[in-house]
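In this supplementary section we document a worked example of the pipeline. Step one takes a protein sequence of length 246 as its only input; no multiple sequence alignment statistics are reported here. Step two produces a three-dimensional model, which step three serialises into structure tokens for compact storage. The input and output of this example are shown verbatim.
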Amino acid sequence: MKKKLLEIKNLHVEVEGKEILKGINLNLDLGKINALMGPNGSGKSTLVNTIMGHPRYKITQGKIVFKGKEISKFSPDKRAKLGIFLSFQYPREISGISVSKFLKTASKELNQKFSIFDFKKNLKEKTNLLGISNEMTERYLNEGFSGGEKKKNEILQMLVLNPNLIMLDETDSGLDVDSLKIVAKGVNEIMNQKKCTLIITHYKRILEHIKPNKIFIMLNGKIVLEGGKEIVDQLEEKGYNWIEEN
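The serialised model returned by step three reads:
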């Protein structure tokens, strides 16, 4: 029997009084990679930000169950401690704290047990995997980083913090081919039977490097279709009109 990591039931969400999500039902299983696709404004980013607990997004109906716990009223930090991670589409720059210091502090907040030696060794392994220099980890968080560096840094955080639910909000957007392969390498490295990934993307190319088990299509605040990789080929050929018509 499949073990559900995340269950979303009849989720309605509004932002500043406007309803964005209009009854989302979604189950994500352990050990599976999922892709969420849809046109701009369909509610994809709203969904993952709501799962993460962003206070701007107000749940008006429905519930979110993670590891068997109803988390709809949990704060973002509590959700992170339970094992939820969101890679942001537009990572913010934070002056005054280095990447390594941020990761060490965050790891402690997640109650990870490690010595300074173990932390540095683990960080070195992960930076080597992603082709990130030591110099970059000593710079202030995302300050002066290129778009590709910011996305790699998000994947570095994912690898070091080692969450159970990995949500990537258009992490592939704007990446060149080499950077895209590095991001995919990080996701493939972390995946196992105790984790689940949800990738938001507009593009087929990342799904050629990270193979999804299931693809969900969102339109107008609802998930209207789910299936396998054949859906992506149809989108490449026809766009979203064929779904809207059916």
